[in-house]
Amino acid sequence: MPFLSIDTSTYDSSETIRKQLIEKFAELNYIIHLTSKFLGIYQNAEKPKGNLSTILHSIKQVWSCFLLFLLFLGFMISVTLTSVAVTSLYLIGLIDFLFLFYYNWSHFEYRFFRSLMHSSTGVGILKQFKMLNRIKNISIFISLAIVAAVLLLVSLSLFKISQPVLIDMFKINDDVIRIFYMACFGIIMLSTPAANCICFLYISQVISEYEIFNADFETDANTYQIAVARHYAHAHNRIYKSFQTIERPISYWVSSHILINLVIVLKSIHYLSHIQIDERNAITNLCLAAPTSFYLVSCLFQSICILYVALDIRHQMTRLKQLMFNLLIGQRILHDQTYSLCIACISHFHIHKYGISFFRLTIIDRQFINFICFGCFLILFLSAHQESG
To answer: Using one digit for the tens of pLDDT, what is the confidence trace for 246-268?
Structure first.
């Protein structure tokens, strides 16, 4: 059973695991720290000591508030002087920046790490570090590619270097406002890889803990004993409490992206279906379809990844219900209290909803995804029927 509290009898091994976990944590969060420091919003969990540290901390607070003011000013410019597509992209980037800002100033990483050390030894993260590092690298690489393409398209359109068909996205004529808006757009887009990394990396860390937990329960031959079964139920609850330290901000970030991506996808499909193809000019056709198609594919890909990890973490969290049921119907004779504990756990899983929520309204599960897909098809069908009529 790897999910044991640290005590004096296991101090040496637990301290070694703790040091390894700190090193792995620092390596996994390196790009997040680097981006935060570059933007000037990095905040250490330690309280400032001394006059100089206090002054620097105050300067960071003033800079962060000033930067937020500039970015919201850029959003107002985007709402009034750009198209809906560009405003949606700016809003996504602004949400990513606010998420990264909250990550630093709420001590997101420290609270999760401290809770994780209280709930388990972090063995899941250590055993699946290569997979977590791969997830981090893939999320950063894909995010950087999308950000680079978005910045290229927006800058070409904003400064009127591209084909005339793309210039209509902006109504900004003043050069100073253009430069200011592009600077704001670049800052928020810079935070996108870090924000995606935070979401997918921390969810994957919780998933890895539950995977090791479930595998350990499944292979343990002593789960018929009440002490062992109660230990696993307690360990499951402690890991869930670790997830609760990050669940609220991640749920809001995930919900915002799903909602905005859904709007962009529907608007993109509607726009692509109404493009007037110029048979004599292939470049114009490409300029018409390429940016919108890129936005469509990017939003779909991110939404699919978000929904996949949401389903995966829910599956790993609720898998104990199936394991408890298998224990009940197995051939081993259970202790009387173990039988009651299994019934209580199964009933608890039926009542309590585990997973990532959608704006704290409902859990993202298969039923939620079916509802979203049905709603999208219904909107597209009604839109097509209305236009044909």
So the answer is: 999 999 999 999 999 998 888 88
